[in-house]
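Quick one, C-alpha cells below:
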C-alpha cells in the first residue's frame, strides 16, 4: 500500500490514512464521492484534519483485499490529480448512502409518482427517484435496503434487490413472466368481452341475454381485473390514488350500475362498457409491457453475456460452480467457445478472444500468459487457464451494467414538467369526473348517461403516455449507445449533448493513439548514453504519463533496464523529480528545467515533442517523441464540423507538435502547453461566453476539465480518475463515437419532444371530449391504451437508427 496506510481492518469496516491528502479538504471530499460510486461500499466517513477515511463495505460484493487495492488506487489517483480540482463537492454527512431496488407492481407513471412522493416525505431520505419505464427506485438517505423495501411494500408494491448480475437476471426473468401473464390476462379478457360487446350493441330486451352478459362480464371485471381493485383499495388505505384507482372507479361504477339495474329489472345496462374497459386496458398494458421490454434489450443482452457457471480448479480437480461463488485468486479453465466467467489474467495456454462486447472491435484479440481477459467475452479455438482478478460487482461487465442501469433510470430535466403534471393528474381527473357527473345530472340527463360520461373522463385521462414519453426514449437511446461502445453514466449527458456547440480535445491518447515513441535522442557531452537512459527511465517508472512510458520502452528496447527510483515527486503537466542510484534526476519540459536554473537548447523537432532530462543539476539529454493520430481522428473531426460543432485542441504538449497533429486531423484552433488548471479555465471561459462545451480526454490531467465541461467524454483506455470525472465513456477510445453520441442525442431529444407533444395534446383534447359526452367508456379505454403504446413504439425507432 503506497497511497494509504491501514489503521485497522475488520470484516466489514476498514480505516485508512491518506498522508498525501492531509488538509486537502476538497480532494478528500472528491475521494469520498468516487468511493461511494462502488456498489460494495456502503458508507464513507472522512476526517479531513487527519486525512482519515473509515469505509464500511459488503465483503460479499468486494473482498477486503480488493477494497484495499481500490482504496490505494483511487486515493493515489486523487492525490496525484492537479491542484485545481473540479468544482467543490460536499462530503456526505452521517451514514447516508445510495440504495437501488427493482419495483414490481407499477402499472403506470402515476404509480411511480406516488412511490416517489411518498418516499420523499420520509425525513430519513434525502432524495428518491422512481422510474416507471425501468421499474426501479433509487434512494439516497440514512436507511438500508430492508427499510426501503418495507416502505415500498406498505404502498402495495414489491421491492427486490438488484445488486448482482444474478439478481438482475432473476428480475429480468420475472419481467418476462410478467409479460406472459399480462398476455394471458388480456387474451382471456378479450375472448370473454367480445360476445358481451356484441350483445350490448344489439341492445336486446330479453332478460336471458342480460344474464349472459352478467355471467361473461363478472370473470372479466372481478377475475382478470381484480388487480386494479386490490391496488386501489391499498392505495385508498394510504389516502393516495393512481391510475388503477381511475380504472377501478370506472369499471366498478359501470359494473355496479349494471348489476343494480339487472336486479331491479331495468334495461339500461353497461356490462359491455365494464368488460370493454378492463379488456382494453389489459390489452394496452400487455402491448406496453412488451414494447418496454424491447426498449430494455440492452440490459438483457449485457446480462446474458455472463455465463451462469464456471470451471474452477480446486485441489487439482476441475469443479463446475455457480459464477457467484467465485472469489479472487481462483484458477479457472476456459474451453473453446465458452464465455470468460470473470475478469482475470491468463496463466497458461494461448487463444483468441472476441472482446467486441466491450471494445466494439470485431477482430479477435490474441491472448497468452500474463494477458488480461474480460468476463463475458467469447473464447476462440484455444483452451486456457486464468486467475480471477475481479468477481461479482467488481468486474468490467458489472460496471457496464451499472452504468447503463443508472443512465436508463435517470430523469432528464425535460421530464420534470411531465413529472409535476403526473403527480397532480389523478386527483384532478377525479375532480373533473365528479364535475362532469354532477353537470350532466343537473342538466336533466339520465343517471346512466351522466355515469357513462364520468367514467369516460376517468379512463381517457391516463397519464401513462406522459410518464413514458421520456424514460422509454432514454432506455432505447442508452441501449443503442451501449451497443456502439458508448457508455452513458447519467441521462442528463444524453440531453445536454444534443446542444453542444464546442468540443475541446486533449491530444495525446485522445486524438493520437497514445503510444508515443522516441524518434530522436540527443545526449549532452559528459554523459554516457546507457547510464543516462537507466537513470532517466528509472525516474519515469513512477510516472503514468504517455511520454514517460515512451522513454521506458525505448530504454528497454536497447536492453537497458531502468534503475530503482526513490522520492519521486510529480508536477502534473510539467515533469518529475526523483532520486535514482544516488543521483537527482529531473525529466520534463524546457520550462520545468528552466525554473530550476538548468539551461538547454532545443532544436527544431519537426512536430516531435521535446522531453528534457537533467542529472545532478546538469542538462543531460533531449528526447524527441512522436505520436501518430488515430486512424479515425480526421474523419471524426470532419463529421463534427458537418454537425456545426467548433473544435479546439488544448494540450500540454509544445506548440509545434500540437499544431502538426491538429493540422493533420483538421482541428483549426490549438492551445499548447496548457496546464491542467489552464484546461479547466478554457472550458470555464467558453461556458461563460455562452457556449455549450464538451471535453474529451483520457488522463488525470484532464479530469478537472472533464468535470467542468457540460459533457465530459472519457477515453475508455484512459485513467480511472478521467473515467470517473466524465459522464460518458468511449470504450475503445474511438473519438468518432463522439459524433455518433451527439447525433443519437439529437434524435433522442427530437423523439422525446414528439412524445411529449402527443401525450399532452392527447389529454388536452380527449378530456373535454369525454366530459361533453363525445366518447363512450369503451372508446375512451381503447384510446388511452393506444396513446401509451404509440409513445413507446415511437421511442423504439431509436434502436433502428444507425
Amino acid at each position: 500500500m503506497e497511497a494509504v496506510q491501514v489503521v485497522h481492518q475488520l470484516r466489514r469496516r476498514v480505516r485508512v490514512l491518506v498522508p498525501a491528502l492531509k488538509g486537502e479538504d476538497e480532494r478528500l471530499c472528491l475521494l469520498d464521492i468516487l468511493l461511494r460510486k462502488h456498489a460494495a461500499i456502503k458508507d464513507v466517513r472522512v476526517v479531513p484534519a487527519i486525512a482519515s477515511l473509515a469505509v464500511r463495505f459488503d465483503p460479499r460484493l468486494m473482498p477486503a483485499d480488493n477494497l484495499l487495492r481500490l482504496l490505494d488506487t483511487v486515493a493515489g489517483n486523487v492525490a496525484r490529480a492537479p491542484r485545481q480540482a473540479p468544482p467543490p463537492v460536499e462530503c456526505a454527512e452521517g451514514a447516508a448512502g445510495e440504495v437501488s431496488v427493482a419495483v414490481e407492481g407499477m402499472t403506470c407513471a402515476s404509480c411511480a409518482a406516488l412511490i416517489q412522493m411518498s418516499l420523499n416525505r420520509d425525513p430519513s431520505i434525502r432524495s428518491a427517484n422512481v422510474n416507471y419505464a425501468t421499474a426501479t427506485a433509487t434512494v439516497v438517505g440514512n436507511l438500508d435496503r430492508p427499510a426501503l423495501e418495507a416502505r415500498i411494500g406498505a404502498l402495495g408494491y414489491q421491492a427486490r434487490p438488484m445488486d448482482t448480475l444474478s439478481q438482475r437476471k432473476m428480475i429480468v426473468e420475472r419481467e418476462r413472466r410478467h409479460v406472459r401473464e399480462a398476455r394471458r390476462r388480456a387474451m382471456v379478457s378479450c375472448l370473454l368481452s367480445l360476445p358481451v360487446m356484441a350483445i350490448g350493441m344489439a341492445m336486446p330486451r330479453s332478460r336471458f341475454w342480460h344474464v349472459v352478459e352478467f355471467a361473461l362480464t363478472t370473470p372479466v371485471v372481478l377475475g382478470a381485473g381484480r388487480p386494479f381493485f386490490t391496488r386501489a383499495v391499498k392505495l385508498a388505505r394510504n389516502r393516495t390514488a393512481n391510475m388503477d384507482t381511475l380504472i377501478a372507479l370506472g369499471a366498478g361504477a359501470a359494473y355496479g350500475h349494471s348489476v343494480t339495474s339487472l336486479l331491479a329489472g331495468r334495461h339500461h345496462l353497461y356490462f359491455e362498457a365494464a368488460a370493454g374497459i378492463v379488456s382494453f386496458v389489459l390489452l394496452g398494458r400487455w402491448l406496453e409491457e412488451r414494447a418496454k421490454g424491447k426498449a430494455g434489450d440492452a440490459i438483457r443482452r449485457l446480462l446474458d453475456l455472463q455465463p451462469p457457471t464456471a470451471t474452477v480448479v480446486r485441489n487439482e480437480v476441475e469443479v463446475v460452480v455457480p459464477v457467484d461463488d467465485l472469489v479472487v485468486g481462483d484458477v479457472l479453465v476456459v474451453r473453446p467457445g465458452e464465455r470468460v466467467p470473470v475478469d482475470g489474467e491468463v496463466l497458461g495456454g494461448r487463444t483468441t478472444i472476441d472482446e467486441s462486447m466491450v471494445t466494439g472491435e470485431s477482430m479477435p484479440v490474441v491472448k497468452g500468459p500474463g494477458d488480461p481477459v474480460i468476463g463475458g467475452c467469447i473464447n476462440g479455438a484455444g483452451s486456457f487457464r486464468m486467475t480471477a482478478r475481479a468477481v461479482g460487482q467488481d468486474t468490467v461487465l458489472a460496471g457496464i451494467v451499472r452504468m447503463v442501469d443508472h443512465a436508463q433510470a435517470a430523469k432528464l430535466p425535460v421530464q420534470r414538467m411531465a413529472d409535476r403534471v403526473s403527480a397532480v393528474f389523478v386527483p384532478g381527473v377525479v375532480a373533473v369526473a365528479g364535475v362532469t357527473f354532477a353537470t350532466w345530472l343537473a342538466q336533466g340527463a339520465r343517471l346512466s348517461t351522466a355515469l357513462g360520461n364520468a367514467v369516460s373522463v376517468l379512463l381517457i385521462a391516463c397519464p401513462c403516455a406522459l410518464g413514458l414519453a421520456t424514460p422509454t426514449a432514454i432506455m432505447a437511446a442508452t441501449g443503442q449507445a451501449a451497443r456502439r461502445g458508448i457508455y452513458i453514466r447519467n441521462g442528463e449527458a444524453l440531453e445536454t449533448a444534443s446542444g453542444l456547440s464546442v468540443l475541446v480535445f486533449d491530444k495525446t491518447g485522445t486524438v493520437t493513439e497514445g503510444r508515443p515513441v522516441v524518434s530522436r535522442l540527443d545526449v549532452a557531452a559528459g554523459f554516457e548514453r546507457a547510464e543516462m537512459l537507466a537513470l532517466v527511465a528509472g525516474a519515469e517508472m513512477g510516472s503514468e504519463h504517455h511520454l514517460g512510458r515512451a522513454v521506458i520502452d525505448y530504454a528497454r528496447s536497447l536492453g537497458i533496464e531502468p534503475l530503482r527510483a526513490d522520492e519521486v515527486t510529480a508536477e502534473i503537466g510539467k515533469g518529475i523529480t526523483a532520486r535514482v542510484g544516488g543521483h537527482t534526476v529531473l525529466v520534463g519540459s524546457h520550462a520545468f528545467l528552466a525554473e530550476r536554473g538548468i539551461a538547454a537548447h532545443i532544436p527544431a523537432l519537426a512536430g516531435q515533442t521535446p522531453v528534457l532530462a537533467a542529472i545532478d543539476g546538469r542538462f543531460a539529454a533531449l528526447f524527441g517523441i512522436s505520436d501518430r493520430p488515430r486512424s479515425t481522428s480526421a474523419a471524426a473531426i470532419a463529421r463534427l464540423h458537418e454537425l456545426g460543432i467548433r473544435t479546439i485542441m488544448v494540450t500540454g504538449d509544445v506548440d509545434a507538435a500540437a499544431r502538426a497533429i491538429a493540422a493533420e486531423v483538421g482541428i483549426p484552433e490549438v492551445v499548447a502547453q496548457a496546464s491542467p488548471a489552464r484546461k479547466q479555465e478554457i472550458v470555464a471561459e467558453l461556458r461563460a461566453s455562452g457556449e455549450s462545451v464538451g471535453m474529451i480526454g483520457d488522463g488525470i490531467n484532464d479530469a478537472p476539465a472533464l468535470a467542468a465541461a457540460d459533457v465530459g467524454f472519457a477515453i475508455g483506455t484512459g485513467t480511472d480518475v478521467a473515467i470517473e470525472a466524465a459522464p460518458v465513456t468511449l470504450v475503445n477510445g474511438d473519438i468518432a463515437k463522439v459524433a455518433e453520441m451527439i447525433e443519437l442525442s439529437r434524435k433522442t431529444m427530437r423523439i422525446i419532444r414528439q412524445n411529449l407533444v402527443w401525450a399532452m395534446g392527447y389529454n388536452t383534447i380527449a378530456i373535454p371530449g369525454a366530459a361533453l359526452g363525445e366518447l363512450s367508456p369503451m372508446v375512451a379505454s381503447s384510446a388511452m391504451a393506444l396513446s401509451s403504446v404509440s409513445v413507446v413504439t415511437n421511442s423504439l425507432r431509436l434502436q433502428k437508427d444507425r
